[in-house]
Amino acid sequence: MSDVRCRFAPAPSGFLHVGGAHTALFSWLYARHHGGSFVVRIEDTDERRVSQGAVEAIMSSLSWLGVDWDEGLDKGGRYGPYVQSQRLDLYRRVAEQLEAGGHAYPCFCTPQELEERRKAALARGERPGYDGRCRRLTPEEREQKRSEGLTFAVRFATPGRDVVVRDLIRGEQTVAAAEIEDFIVLRSNGTPTYLLAAAVDDREMKLTHIIRGEDLYPSTPRQLLIFAALEADPPQYAHLPLILGPDRAKLSKRHGAITVESFREQGFLAEAMLNYLALLGWSPGEDREVIGRDEMIRRFDLADVSHHPAIFDTQKLEWLNGHYIRKCSDADLAERILPFLHAAGLAADADTVRAAVPHIRERMRTLAEGAGWLRFLFVEEVTPDEKAQKMIASVDSDYLMEAAKRLEAVQDWNDEEVKGALDEVASTRGLSRTKGWQPIRAAVTGSTVSPPLPESIALLGKERAVARLAAAAKA
Hints:
Helices cover 46% and strands 9% of the residues. The chain has helices at residues 18-33, 54-65, 88-100, 111-123, 139-147, 194-204, 220-229, 260-265, 270-278, 293-299, 314-327, 330-343, 350-356, 367-374, 386-393, 397-408, 415-428, 433-445, 453-460, 462-474, and strands spanning 5-8, 37-40, 104-107, 153-156, 163-167, 171-175, 184-186, 209-213, 236-240, 243-244, 310-311.
């Protein structure tokens, strides 16, 4: 099936939503599994949904995930351009072709008139659909209205027959003719609606499989009618189930992060994100929770995609991210954490971070969390947070000064020697390690949570560790 051609066609309305990334991934996996082509096309004909910089943001997120494309945007290809606003003449020609063939007609109804009729239909207890008024105009009446300079949209003339939708995930369903009213294909400003533009481009770009979200399923019977009117074979459709939040509502901002970029900024690894998205609604069998990119491609099959909604569980994603973090080498993990430290304005060096990562790897859930734990190593002075301030205040200043003196006396500066000095300080007060070390941790790192304390102090260095304890004792 090397002739398989799939696409991802986002509207450039902002950063890439995880739902969009999920759709792109499944379409990409299907194309790669069959040795076919994957196309990225930008659907920007609705100006209300276009945001500055969104195209670049979408491309960046796809590239970060490792979802590469064969045609589109920066790649070019035989069927370009791959931005719909650059293809407007094509859509207008097709609209004219449909009208000439009796499959479409000009509609002169204004938005205000349509709204009034909709309200009237509701008041009568009727379904508020288009009443076909302009479809009944004679050719002479249409020409008269055009000659008067009246603006008009172009509506598709539905043939009044049921439409059978054969979906690779949902199976076969018949949509009754009564449920499909005459729909607009070209707006009065000359721009196409999604129904026309997507169908025309899918035909022109010779796409074989359209894998998209379930929310677009209602458009499918209408687009099948357009294909039939153009005497073109339609692609095969597969509509993926929605992604829901833990409360089973459609995933939205109230559930927290919902864009790929936001998860990237929080320090999630691309491998973990790709793995997690792949298993939302698809199973390779054997109750697998960890699967790499190459194996995904090898095993992906639309037959294994569920038609039930998938639940996006951030806690499970964090667990999976931790798994991938623990698989990283020290050098790799340090290289991934460094940008987060630099973004915070810290002059972190790779050698220190590399020495520190073995002490935080097992507890890390995200790269940002790891960077937060290492921050104390790259600041001149720490400002204890609220919990740390309370912990420091729980002991008298003599205790912290004693800790400073013990550390200053350490000759062979290493983890074990530092640990011995800390134990001596705690024992002088009859304290356990937990109670004796916490105030020292708070003074040295500014937090009650850090890498193991002896290793933290050893990495920080004697001079800075002693100075921080002395400063906390005097505060």
